[in-house]
Amino acid sequence: MMNFIKTLQNKPEPIKKTIMWLGVAVIMIVIFGVWILTFSGRTTPVAENPGLSNLKKEMPGVWQTLKSQVNSLKNLWPK
């Protein structure tokens, strides 16, 4: 390994950069591959929560109320 580093130090700058980017790409591919392999085994479908379904039904009403409150605040602001 030390011999490789010493010979690398004597190489021209473009070759050093090429070797650096190849090393970065290889390491990135290995990390991404390990991540994909471990990620696929952990995913499980999530059960529907009854509270969440109620919240989904109430959200349009909440947005309407918020919108009306913002509009009334705009009307109070001096022009």
Account of the 3D structure:
By secondary structure, the chain is mainly α. It has one domain. 80% of the residues lie in helices and 0% in strands. The chain is built from 3 helices and no strands. The longest helix is centred in the middle third of the chain and has 28 residues. It starts with a helix and ends with a helix. The mean pLDDT is 83.
Secondary structure elements and their pairing?
Blueprint: H1 2-9, H2 13-40, H3 50-76
Beta content: under 5%
Q: Whole-number radius of gyration?
A: 29 Å
Secondary-structure element pattern, one letter each: HHH
- Content-based structural category: mainly alpha
What percent of residues adopt helix (DSSP H or I)? Answer: over 70%
Overall average pLDDT: 83
User: What is the number of beta strands?
Assistant: 0
- How many domains, in number, for the residues? 1
Shape: elongated
| Euclidean distance between termini CA atoms | 73 Å
How many helical stretches? 3
Question: Which sheet architecture does the biggest sheet show?
Answer: none
Low-confidence stretches: none
